[in-house]
Q: What sequence folds into this?
């Protein structure tokens, strides 16, 4: 996005920018994200020592997976979102990591899928470690593909962040079921996994201008499904003039082990 200065120019820019591919850089330099009190790499890396197999769920552009290097000798990534596939292939192919496109799980706040309809296209007990950064997951399916003693590690964006984004637009909280560390823990334990670590935090997320805020809201349409610049123009103008373009970024992580 170019460095324009007037309100009308900025919101028009935010409305037109391509937000279909995460990792494309459309918010670089225009969003400031405070780091949580952990690093994703540090959550996963201890379980990779001695692991032979790793599955990366929802790999995105593949960069978070490569940050975990050195990787187990048999590492595979899966991704559902078609616009991200070319970037993931470009990132992972030179590293020798195969990418499988497959449908993702339903939202963790939705009713769980039937047990006989797995989404991960792998045999039972295939992976020592399953890593998941900001992707939905079916706890029963994750347990199915884990080897005995294997570990699932996930970092998630919690539901309260969406409510804060909605509040900036003068909207009430969304009607989705709660999604936080306690809910994820309960889901994993119900699937027969044992939680071995977890954490939750609310780091600050802010935008330097209203165009960046518009682009961000468009990139997460499940927060404000009816969002458009025309529908929220006056509220956006108020935000731009007040400079109150910051939210708490609700995040949590959980690690859970499969019984031996």
A:
């Amino acid at each position: 996005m170019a460095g324009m200065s007037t309100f009308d120019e900025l919101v028009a820019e935010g409305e037109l920018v391509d937000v279909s591919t995460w990792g494309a850089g459309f918010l670089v330099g225009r969003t400031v994200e405070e780091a949580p009190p952990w690093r994703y790499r540090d959550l996963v890396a201890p379980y990779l020592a001695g692991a032979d197999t790793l599955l990366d769920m929802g790999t995105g552009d593949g960069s978070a997976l490569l940050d975990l290097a050195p990787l187990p000798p048999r590492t595979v990534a899966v991704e559902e979102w078609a616009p991200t596939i070319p970037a993931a292939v470009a990132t992972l192919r030179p590293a020798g990591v195969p990418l499988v496109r497959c449908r993702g799980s339903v939202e963790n706040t939705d009713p769980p899928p039937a047990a006989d309809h797995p989404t991960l296209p792998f045999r039972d007990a295939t992976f020592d470690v399953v890593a998941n950064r900001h992707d939905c997951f079916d706890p029963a399916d994750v347990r199915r593909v884990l080897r005995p003693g294997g570990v699932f590690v996930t970092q998630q964006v919690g539901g309260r962040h969406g409510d804060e984004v909605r509040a900036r637009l003068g909207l009430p909280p969304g009607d989705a079921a709660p999604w936080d560390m306690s809910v994820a823990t309960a889901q994993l334990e119900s699937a027969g996994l044992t939680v071995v670590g977890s954490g939750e935090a609310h780091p600050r997320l802010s935008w330097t201008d209203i165009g960046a805020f518009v682009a961000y809201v468009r990139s997460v349409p499940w927060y404000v499904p009816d969002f458009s610049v025309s529908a929220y123009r006056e509220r956006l103008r108020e935000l731009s003039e007040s400079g109150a373009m910051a939210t708490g970024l609700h995040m949590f992580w959980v690690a859970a082990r499969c019984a031996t």
Remarks:
- Residues 229-242 form the longest helix (14 residues).
- The chain has a mean pLDDT of 92.
- The first strand starts at residue 31 and ends at 33.
- The radius of gyration is 19 Å.
